[in-house]
Amino acid sequence: MNVANIEAAKKPVIIFKNIAHEGPGYLGDFLTLQGIPWQTINTHEVESLPPSILGYSGVVLMGGPMSVNDDLPWIAPVLNLIREAKAADIPLLGHCLGGQLMTKALGGVVTKNAVKEIGWGEVKVSQHELAKHWFGEIESFNSFHWHGETFSLPEGAINLLSSIYCQQQAYSMGKHLALQTHVEVTTQMVQSWCEHGVAELAESASSPAVQQANAMQENLPLHCFFLNKVAKQLYGQWIKGLMY
Fold first, then answer.
1. Is the CB of residue 11 less than 8 Å from the CB of residue 57?
2. Looking at residue 58, which CATH number applies to its domain?
C-alpha cells in the first residue's frame, strides 16, 4: 500500500463545532500538516450527529457561548458520544466549552467562575509529572481566554494548568485532554470573536479579568505565534493516542 492509500485508510478525527465562528483554528492546520484526516460536525444539526464514535480516530470538541447546563437538544447525544469515546479509549480533546462537555460527561460538574475571564493572560503549568508529558519544558505562557464558567476535575483527572482567575485551566485523563483556555486561536479568530462579543465585552467591562477588544488585538500576530507553539506541543502529544 503506498503512502497515499495509507493516508486514505486512516480513520478521521471528528471535530464538533457548537457555533460557526468557533472552529478548529490552528488545530485544523496542524492536523492537515501531519497528514491526519479530519472533519467537522455542527452540533446544532442534531440529525447530523454520528450514531457511534467508533469510526473515528479521535474526538475534538470546540467552544461556544452556551452552557453545558443549558437544555439544548444536542447536548445529551454529544455527552453519550464522549462517554463512548472514553470507554473505547479514543482520545478526547476539549477546548473551553468542549472541556466542560468532557467534564460533565465524565462525572464532573460545570459551575459559574468567580469572574469572567476574557483576553490574554498568563497560565502556569502544574508541577505534576504528567504536566511535563504534555507541555515539555514550558512552565508558563500567555494564553487566550473567553469563559464565564469553570469545570471541576472528574475522578482520575490531573490538573495541568491554572491562572490567577481560574484554578482549573486544563486536565488530563490518560490520553484525554480537556482545556478551559483557548490554545487553538488564530489572529482571524480573535478578531471575529471580538466582533461577535461586543455586547458581552461591554457588559463585563468591570471584571478585572476582562480585556477590551483593542487590548486583545494589540500585537495580536505575535501573541498567536507564541501560543501556536504551545498548541503544537500539546497537539503533538495528543495525536500519539489516535486510534487508527
1. yes
2. 3.40.50.880
